[in-house]
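Dear colleague,

Following up on yesterday's call, I've attached the two folding results inline so they're easy to grep. Please treat them as preliminary; we haven't cross-checked anything against experimental data yet. The first protein's sequence and structure tokens come first.
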Amino acid sequence: MIVCALNQEVFTLLQSSFKNRNIYKEYVCLVEGKLRTQSGKIEVPLSRSRMNRVKREVSSDGKVSSSNFEVIDESNTCSKLKIELITGRNHQIRSQMEFIGNPILNDVLYGAKKVAELNENQICLHSKKIRFEIKNQNYEFETDEPSFFNGFLNV
């Protein structure tokens, strides 16, 4: 999901809202395996990978990244999660899921196995909802996840 400002004033207000973490950002993803708990918070420091500059990794000299997660559904081989971003680091969800041992389906950059049914650039991560306030008016935008998500859970 992309939010675009149509003028400089709204751009500045949005920029401030993102910086101050006043924007609700919700994602849905499919990850390999089952998580150890049905909900929780992941908070780890992330920095650019020393081995692969495209990637992010958990590192003591990184910037804090925080996400809340909740298991929505699961099968024997994968789990569907709702993720609420608290911070918004580059590749945050992808690197956090790799760190906890449940990489996003088909995200081979972050340790997942290749899924034959998906093309190489297609990972199972979807920006589902964004909510914010501009000039005392509330905005909320939501999209459905891709139809193939449920196929992996045999729903």
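Below is the second protein, in the same order (sequence, then structure):
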Amino acid sequence: MLKTASPTISQPDTLLGWMESLADPTRLRLLRLLERHELGVVELCDVLQLPQSTVSRHLKVLSDQSWTRSRRQATTNLYRTILDELDITARKLWILAREQTADWITTQQDESRLIRHLRDKQKDSQAFFAGAAGLWDKIRSELYGSRFTTAAMLSLLPADYIVADLGCGTGPLTAELAGYVKQVIAVDNSPAMLKAAQKRLDGVDNVDLRNGDLEALPIDDGECDAAMMVLVLTYVASPEAAIREIARILKPGGKVVLIDLLPHDREDFRRQMEQQHAGFESAAMEQMMVDAGLSKVVCRPLPTEPNVKGPALFIATGSTPLRGGPEGRV
């Protein structure tokens, strides 16, 4: 039986090509820079102090031999060498070449110019933000929207949480939460709202929609890690009872977030929205939460957003005490 050849380089031309590509001081200088930073041709010309035609010619050789890879950014090609992406034999050759060029005066000068170049880029970035600071929120919103901030905050939730969305309505908050936690238990006492929520959440398998009143939640004691009630409490006949129910369904250390209206004198608004309460004082809300057995209670007004037409809002947070833990306001 014939023995197969050992798994070495099958084509000597490949090895010779790698060796030839390293047999040039400019290409060695390029590889030393591109192993540490992603740079464009103009930047490399500045650091190496060489004309663009020379740098481009040597980059083509390195690219053809798979020493570098590039990506397009606007009108610029950015180049980079990543050691782990090199063929194992090419990697060994480069490591040897890098060690042997470590003490070159030329490469030390390249390093000095590169540091200066990177500092200049940082100053340019700082200058941009200094000029844009007054309009940055508007610029960022126009360029990227605002949903990514919600995604960032929701990502802070532990993935194994069971969260109650109380007074879920048509399920917009439920849908947001479902992508970040183990389960969402969504409760509402309106069949029409739950039907709309079910349509919105079609295909989402970690949501449990339940019909029930907020003063007598269809949720077991200590079933949830967190609970949210957003723009719902003004519709509840007994807010105190609803908050006691929230405390009941939470595990020790469970978190609660309430968002609702601050007091207002717009009786026409209250009637139009068929709300039972014209908002809540912060101190009264804190007291209701403490009386329900919640701890670390904080209630504060939310900033008024431009162009909104409804009354101002508050956000109240608290938690169920850990066993043996402190209670009350902080």
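For the second protein, one point worth flagging: The chain has two domains: 13-136, 147-329.

Best wishes,
A.L.
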